[in-house]
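Input/output pair, single chain:
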Amino acid sequence: MPKNIPEPFVKLLPFALSAAITLAACSPGADGARKDSSAGGSPAAASTGASDGQLTGAGATFPYPIYSKWFADYAAKTGVKINYQSIGSGGGIRQLSEQTVDFGASDAPMSDQEMAGAKGGPVQHIPTVLGAVCVTYNLPDVKQTLNLTGDLIADIFLGKVTKWNDGRIAALNKGVSLPNRDIVVVHRSDGSGTSYIFTDYLTTVSAGWKGGPGKGKDVKWPVGLGGKGNEGVTGQVKQTPGAIGYVELAYARQNKLPTAAVRNASGKFVEPSIDAVTAAAAGVAQKLPPNSDYRISIVNAPGADAYPISSFTWILLYKTQPNGDKGKKLLDFLHWALHDGEQSAPSLDYAPLPAVLAARLDSTLATIKVGAAP
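Output:
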């Protein structure tokens, strides 16, 4: 396999490569989508600069597998090309805020401060799919699925638990022969919505984490190695015996990495799966207030079958779209994604939105002003 093709995307090559070829004229290079994501990456083609009306977006790596398929399928259906740079949620928010792209994508909702700093005016969050952040590890001689609790995961990433045969890990995994091996922590090195979801969870379940690194797209990690993007963390874990990291479910499955069962709010150890993510989101749509802006967290959700590190991922767009042609194309794509596109989510290890939420989002999209000044 060529070294410049991330292994998690091998499953996606038939459509991802065709999309990349048609969009190459507006791409910064074969690997430009992942350059310097901590600094926002190279800006995508400016939203005011493309003369052919194609759409440009940038942001999260977490939903990149499903977005790649959506963009390729939609281009084949409508001829509308979408150039998306998978540079991390922090980069996507920055590029949307600077108006260098038509839409951003993030696994972390924008903060009030980020919303206020967006140059194009008020921003609308549109949930697209749900996913799981998995705790994955590299222990070649351990064949059983490991059980972990939130406070134990926090202490591992705080550097307080440093050996795989530590008594706390052994107590949760009776009968498992754990190696006397150092734990090598791997975390994201870029501004990351995946990190936001993971640290949101750790902050919810661990007082030590809440009082220390806290939650955010980019926190001060006490220990460990950094990897850029979900693909970078996946690669580090895969090549480092004794490693532990956190990645989106599709990256773990496509690289055949084991994932831990994590104890949920009901006290049950649950492995990440589409059904477990769906269980975490159960009832969320019905409980949303009428004026919800969809910036919500579902980590450590109640329910016996809920996987505790689950989240929505969002596409971000301005509530006022001054370019009428592009604005209409973006809204048409989002409407297609929320209905036709959702059907492909399970095949790529994402959970589709509840139907009631998708219908509600149609009403939200109808409020976007097209062809008007902010």
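Confidence is low (pLDDT under 50) at residues 1-51. The chain has 14 helices and 14 strands.
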